[in-house]
Amino acid sequence: MTAAHPFEVLKERGFLAQVTDEAQVRALFDAGKVTAYVGYDPTAPSLHVGHLFSIMALKHLERLGHTPIVLLGGGTAMVGDPSGKSEMRQMLTHEQIDANVASFKEQVSRFLDIDGGKTLLVNNADWLLPLNYIEFLRDIGRHFSVNRMLAAEAYKMRLERGLSFIEFNYQLLQAYDFLQLRRRHNCLLQMGGDDQWGNILAGVDLCRRLDQTLVHGLTFPLLLTATGNKMGKTEAGAVWLAADKLSPYEYYQYWVNIHDSDVARMLGYFTFLPMAEINAVKSLGGADLNVAKAILAFEATQLAHGIEPAQKAHAAAQAAFGSRTLPAQILPTSQVPRGGGADVADIPTTLITQAELDQGLPLTALLVTCTLASSGNEARRKVLENAVKVNETVVNDPKAQVAAKDLLDGRIVLRLGKKKVHQLKVSG
Hints:
By secondary structure, the chain is an alpha/beta fold. The protein folds into three domains: 6-220, HUPs (Rossmann fold), CATH 3.40.50; 247-342, Orthogonal Bundle (Tyrosyl-Transfer RNA Synthetase); 348-426, RNA-binding S4 domain (Structural Genomics Hypothetical 15.5 Kd Protein In mrcA-pckA Intergenic Region, Chain A, Roll). The protein is 44% helix and 14% strand. The chain is built from 19 helices and 15 strands. It has a six-stranded mixed beta sheet with strand order 1-6-5-2-3-4, sandwiched between helices. The model has no long low-confidence stretch (mean pLDDT 86).
């Protein structure tokens, strides 16, 4: 059986937006093992779904025998990338960046084989922090046209709001990264989001000018929902990969509640299920499409958190929103439990004391405590909109209290709309 062509795999699964030269990139893969990189600036303590999008592309290359490089931007994080940003990033300390680098390394290792050497992990602080500024300007800066840089979309968007000089240097640093990776690891392909196109082209040009070497760039489409919003954002913030910032259950719920039009596309991006099975999802509707959503949620949660947390999140969702059997013919190679098993123990739970319950707890305050609402004002509004249930009973009084009388089978179930559920249990 002929191995799948990496370029075709990326294209079929929807990862391809722009490429410097399709024929040459195809030929690059045809010629043998390719080393390709994606850069990640550690500007937060955790990776999120937006990062995972490009990590999945790297994983496909790793699975096909090529060598991905994960470049952690310990140096560039000190500057800040203006691409896609309406305002300057908050400047981080050395200590914050180092802590974020350590966190990113641990998380990336869950998806890519760093320890086994199939994927390389490097930090651009190793070559950027020792740079002599005057030498860098003479050796690297002279190859950059200010007029061309200002014509780039990333800079044009920021000129009206204000673009700092430190950010203006970012393209030079990213281009220099490509040059260093080419020299150190014979990396011939840089990949990144479509907002990185200008920076990638700058690196391609720099490698040509300084080393007379032909390298290539490839971009992924921006991760947008069917409604045009940025994927991976919720009312509570980013969809983090760290379990202490977003629980596996909440992660599962994010995926199971995506727009119907996004299901097949996200299965292509965030699972390794065969494309023939995924393409069949495009013709599904109604209950069958909801089954596909549940399988997407399970597969995505298993990828990010492991099989056991995914099974628990799936069982909890079954208990919270109704147990159902998942037909074997829908995405048949998925490891999702197909039976109607449900476990209320895995529904998100808050413990309260019997004394608190005897005294009565304000419903709106509980909605905030249980993270069903982000504020007291939102909680009151949802109650008035008849969107809140206590044990399947709609409550529309914002002054209502939850008390001992509401205990059923040792718990009280709070629901907000059709998608959010939480249970209260008496501690001790």
